[in-house]
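[09:14] KT: can someone run the structure on this one? pasting the chain below
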Amino acid sequence: MRMVDLIIKKREGFELSEEEIRFWISGYVKGEIPDYQSSAMQMAILFKGMTKNEVSVLTDAMEHSGETLDLSNIKGVKVDKHSTGGVGDKTTLVLGPMVAACGGVVAKLSGRGLGHTGGTLDKLESIPGLSIAIEGKRFEEQVNRIGLAVAGQTKSLVPADKKMYALRDVTGTVESIPLIAASVMSKKLASGSDAILLDVTVGDGAFMKNMDSARELASVMVEIGKKLGRDTRAIISDMSEPLGLAVGNNLEVKEAIAALKGNGPEDLMELCYTAGSIMLVQSNIYKTTVEARKALKENVDNGKAFEKLCLMVEAQGGDVSYIKDPSKFEMAKNIVPVVSKEDGYIKDIKALTIGVSSMKLGGGRETLEDTIDMSAGIVLAKKVGDFVKKGDVLCTIYTNKDEKTYNEIIGEIYTAYSFSTEKVPHTSVIKEVIE
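[09:31] RB: done, structure tokens below
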């Protein structure tokens, strides 16, 4: 079997066999197939697509390209949630404790942020002392004891994806739905959970810019999960404007704390209640999402969800006093309001522009080697559909950058906003649920 023949076969639009796909992935991971041939195959897939069977085989081959986690020592149905990324997405920090407080088991591996998307691990590491490097027995013991752990992915997990993603990023093949689906699902399946809930974001700040592509990606991933033996479901959620109000690491942790005390922004709470109720049904704890949603609300109101966050932070070496008193978090030197230049209803807040601006203020990284300023970011004062008068605060920036730099960024932030004299409806965060 020759790799060049497989590239030509896919280039001509033919379906690859299971043996051919496994030959490609195995050879590439071992270094027997060079980057340039793997790049050519990924470009052929971008143009010609893959059948459902091909994507399932590709996912399975990638999943088993390295070690897979065995969570059998953890009691109960292990349920995981994955978001395709966005701006202000601190969902895991709220959702994990909420589900655990209702008896769910959340053994989660998360990633870091890159570009305009924030990473859960970076947000957690803004809590002094907290470690995301928990593995093996310690990970199992923590989940069995409190029902919740969020850790970093091990280097030996899905090495095929690490190599393939690095190529996709520099060869213009990131947008391929089969490759996205295989990338996401191979990591989720290798992480060992019994059930998976996917949050596929759509809109300006998301990877998928329209509902058709978001629905296609969600459907493909749900089908892969089911075909490979996992209860997999998906939510399509709005990311045309940032989720919640806070964008930036410790700013988002503070918002997550407020949410677990019942004071979170409406869109963030709605996403967490919807996702959490599905996860609890997947966990076989409740039969209906109506019952599950009621339990989630009760455990937020009685403080048990907040207590789960405290227990997780403490178990992972974090200073719990910061969770109990968020005013202890380090504040940026420069806190500057950005005010409206006109009267009107906010018609649009481009999430991508806000995310990139937060990154430039110090709150994100352009390359994996960049250092993040945990105190930097943006906090919105208004959302789409809100009315503002000239001089009202639209948002506030938090940064340690110099005045000249942050004033240039404020100029970019203004371009994220558009206004209307006509009343604008508030956007609904939940677009669709796919089961």
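[09:33] KT: thanks! DSSP finds 17 helices and 13 strands in the chain.
[09:34] RB: yep, looked fine to me
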